[in-house]
Amino acid sequence: MISTRQNGNAAHTEMLEAVRAAVKRHGASREELIPILTDVNRTVGYLPSEALEEISRLMHVPKSQLFSVATFYRMLSTKKLGRHVIQFCESAPCHVVGGREVWQALQDALDLEPGETTPDGKWSLVTVSCLGVCAVGPVVVVDEDIYGNVTPDQIPGILAAYE
Amino acid sequence: MAFFRSHVLVSVDPECLKRGAHAVIDALHDELVAQGLIDEVQVLETSRIGDPVLHGPDMMVYPEGVHYANLSEDDIPFLVSEHFLKGRVVEKFRAEIRPFADEELGAPKAKEVRVVLRNCGKIDPLNIEDYIAEDGYMALARVLTELTPEDTIDIVKRSGLRGRGGAGFLVGKKWELARMNQGSPKYLTCNADEGDPGAFMNRRVLEGDPHSVLEGMIIAAYAIGAERGYIYCRAEYPVAVKNLNIAIQQARDFGFLGENILGTGFSFDLEVRQGAGAFVCGEETALIASVEGQRGEPRPRPPFPAQKGLWGKPTNNNNVESYANIPQIVLKGPEWFASMGTEKSKGTKTFALAGDVKNTGLIEVPLGITLREIVYDVGGGIKGNKGFKAIQTGGPMGGCLPAEYLDTPVDFESLSAAGSMMGSGGLVVMDDETCMVDIARFFMDFIQDESCGKCNPCRIGTKRMLEILNRICEGKGEPADLQRLEELCPQISSTALCGLGQGAPNPVVSTLRYFRHEYEAHIYEKRCPAKVCRALIKYEIKQDVCTGCTVCARNCPVGAITGERRKPHSIDPDVCVRCGICMQVCNFNAIEIN
Lengths: 163, 594
Prior knowledge:
The complex is a heterodimer. Chain A has 6 helices and 4 strands; from the N terminus they run H-H-H-H-E-H-E-E-E-H. By secondary structure, chain A is an alpha+beta fold. Chain A has 2 domains: 69 residues; 77 residues, 3-Layer(aba) Sandwich (Glutaredoxin), CATH 3.40.30.10. Chains A and B meet through helix 2 and helix 5 of A and strand 9, strand 13 and helix 17 of B.
C-alpha cells in the first residue's frame, strides 16, 4: 500500500511539474490558455481536476472557466484515457470509401463504443472529424501513427503492433 | 554580358559540401579550362537539387536538364569531355529517376491551372531560398517600396479575388473596411482551421509552400495597417504547424518579418496559434474567441471583425488560399488574375476531390469550369465504371447535386442557385451505390456533433433532424417525417446564430430536393434503393448458385447461416446482423442483397 501511495504522490508531483513547466513556457496570460492546456494534456495524457486547479492558481483564472474551455475542445480530455488512443475518422470521404466496415471491425475487435476505454486501460476508441488525409481514406490513427487505405482485415494486425 | 551555351548548377547544400562538392567544383573549373570550354560553360553554385543524402554531390546541367549524381572529382574529366565536348549524356552518372509517388498532388491533370499550388511539391518548403528563387517575396518588396496601402488595396479589388474560405466576400473590399477603421492597434488573422471533411487544400499549401501565405499576410498587414498577425491552424495538422514555424523564423532572419521590414520602416510580426479540435472555430468570430483563449463560440455579427475583432480591435481575417493568391496578383497584375474565371468569380480555386472518383487528390482549376469537367476530365470518371449519382460541394453545409446539374459552372453564384455552395473546396463524388438519405444523415450527424451549443436552433434543431433521419434509415420513418424535416430546415436556417447553424440543413434540403424518391422509398416502402441502410436490407443466398462450400457459415460472426455441406445454405434474417462478411468471403457470388 505504501509503495502505491508513494507512486501516487510521485505521479501527482510529476503532473504539477508538467503544469508549471507549461505555464512557464507560454506565460501566464489568458490568450496562452489553450496552448497550456494542450501541453499538459499531451504530457499527462489528460487534464485531471488537480491540474486545472493548479493552472487556475497560477493564472488567476477561475477553475469553472478552465473547465469550460477544457470541455469545449475535442483534443482536450478531462477523462483519463487508455495507454493508446485510437482515432477513427468518421468524415464523409472516409465513410464512402469503406470507413463504415473498418469502424465495425474496430468496434468488434475492442468491444468499445466511441469514447470508451477498455477495462485494462490499454485502448481508448474515439471518433474524430476529418484529419485532412482524405486521399488515403479510410484513415485510422493510433497514438501518432497514421494508417491509410485501411481495410477491415488489417485491423487485428494494426492493433497487434502496440504493447 | 557573357553568353554561355550551357549552365551547370552544382549543389552546395551542407550535406553535399561534406561529401566533397567543393572538390567537384574545382575539378570542373580546371577541366573546363583545360578543354578550352570555360567561356562556353558557366558553373554556378546552388542549394540542394535532389536528396543530398541519396545524390550528393550532384549537379544539374541546363538547357538539357540532366541531373548527375554521386559525383567525385575523378569523374569530372570524363564527364566534361563526354557531355560538354562531344555532347553525349553520360548515363552512368545520371541520378536514378524514381517515380514520385504523391497520392495527393500529382502532375497537373487536364484543364488544371496551378496558381496557389504552383510551388507545392516542387520547392523545399523548409528552405526560404527555394521560395525566393521562384520570385518569392518580390511582390512584398514591390508593395513596400512602390505602392501605398491604398494602391495595394486597389490592386486586390481590381483583381476581383473573393474570399476562398467559402463566403466569397471581396478580399479587397474587406481590406478597405479594416483600413478605414480608426481603431488601433489592428490585427490580422489567417484562417487555417480547415475543418470541412474531405478538404485538405489549405494543409497542402501550408506544408508545401508556407512562405506564399506569409508573404500574402505581410502584404495585407501593410495594406490595412496591422502590426500583429495570427495564423490559426487546426491541431490536426502538425506538419503544417511545424513548417509554418520554420518559415516564420526564416522570414524574420531574412528581414521580411519583424521590425523595419526590408528597411522600409514597416513592422509586422506574426505567430501560429493551434486549435484544439473544434470545427466551429473556422467561423471567424469563433476563431477570434479561440485565439483569445476562450471557448470557440461564435458571436452575432455585426459588429464585424473589421470593426471589433481580436480584443475588440479591428481585425482582418482571410483564408489561407486567399492570402496565397496575393503575391501572384501583385506580381502578374490584377488583369492577369481577372482574365481567369467568370464575370463575378475570378481566378482559380483549389479543390480536394474525394470519394468514388478515379483520381482523388488535390486539383486547382479556373473558376467557371463545369462539374462534369471536374469529375470526368480532371477526376478521370467514376471508380469501377459505376454510374455517377451525386457530387457534394461546399463541405458539410453544402449540398448534393445530381447528374442533371453536372453542367453547372463552378462559381459562387451558380452553385448557390443550384442549392449548394462553393465552400472551402471539398468535393465528394458519389456513385450509384450511395444512399442519399444515409449521406444526409451522415452530414447531420457531423454538424450535430460539432454544434457549439450556444444557440438553440442549431443545438436542438440539428439534434431533432438527426433523430428523424436516423429513424428513416432504420425503417421506422413516418409519413409526417418529411413534413417535419421541411419545416425544420427553413426555421434553423433563418434563426441560427452563425454560418454553421444557418447552413446545417443544406444537405437535407438538397437531398430532399433532388432525391426525394429515396426518402419516400425508405418511409413508404421500407426499402433502401441503394441497398445501404442495414435495417432495410436482407442478405439472401441464391439457391441455384450456392455450392455448399460452408465458407460463409464458418465466417458468420453470429451463426446466422445454416446448411449441409455441398448443399445450398440459407441465412436466418432474424439472427443476421447485416455485416456483409458472407458476401465478401463467398467465392461464387452466391450472396445477394434484397
